[in-house]
Amino acid sequence: xxxxxxxxxxxxxxxxxxxxxxxxxxxxxxxxxxxxxxxxxxxxxxxxxxxxxxxxxxxxxxxxxxxxxxxxxxxxxxxxxxxxxxxxxxxxxxxxxxxxxxxxxxxxxxxxxxxxxxxxxxxxxxxxxxxxxxxxxxxxxxxxxxxxxxxxxxxxxxxxxxxxxxxx
Length: 168
What we know:
This protein has 168 residues and is an alpha+beta fold. The protein is 31% helix and 19% strand. Strand 2 and strand 3 (20-21) form a beta hairpin.
């Protein structure tokens, strides 16, 4: 274990994970097959995962700060498909928020309907992407495409992660 007192430090590197802030080193590690409860975790791919739940949505954030291995083109595409699958289900339910996703961003935020998917299933798909398995995300995306239709999501029409004002 080593310590680096960078600008926002101190950062600690241990167990082959990207550097963590000292207070993050005590976070519980989540296994890809564990049940998920609201809280904050360290993921097998070196990310920091936060799971929150409201009456209608799971809000899941995944932060890969300092972990360039999680921003490869294949993983970016898989995270995008998963974000769009979640948004497609929200479109069916009449929600008005957009998928929050941007290419190359290491901080990813997802909102998934609680009546569509459990937090555990969604997080397993995220962790599978981290570990290089895109199958679970592809399955969820394919099911949403059957339910909603391909390329019918609001964010695809405007550009995923586009923060410009709507002109509709």
